[in-house]
Design goal:
91 residues, mainly beta, three-stranded antiparallel β-sheet
Length: 91
Amino acid sequence: MRIRIFKQCSESGSGKGSEQRILRYEIIDLQTNRSQVLLDSPATYASADVLWSPDSESLLLCGVYLPLDVKNQAEYYSRRSNKLSSKSNCP
């Protein structure tokens, strides 16, 4: 499987006139042309390092915002204001 990661600008909104463009990381299988959102968090226009594992089964994104779906308030505020690293397994 050949895979590529890129930032995709997707549109979302909950009603007419409320469209928002959100930049997010997606992973694409180049053989099937299927894509999947990698992180449920916004990306920035600044670059982030993407490091692949030697077996290509996982990757490390450095300098990204993490999802805000945590219950711990300190963790929530840390994720909201800091860029961190995230390890993801490839689908």
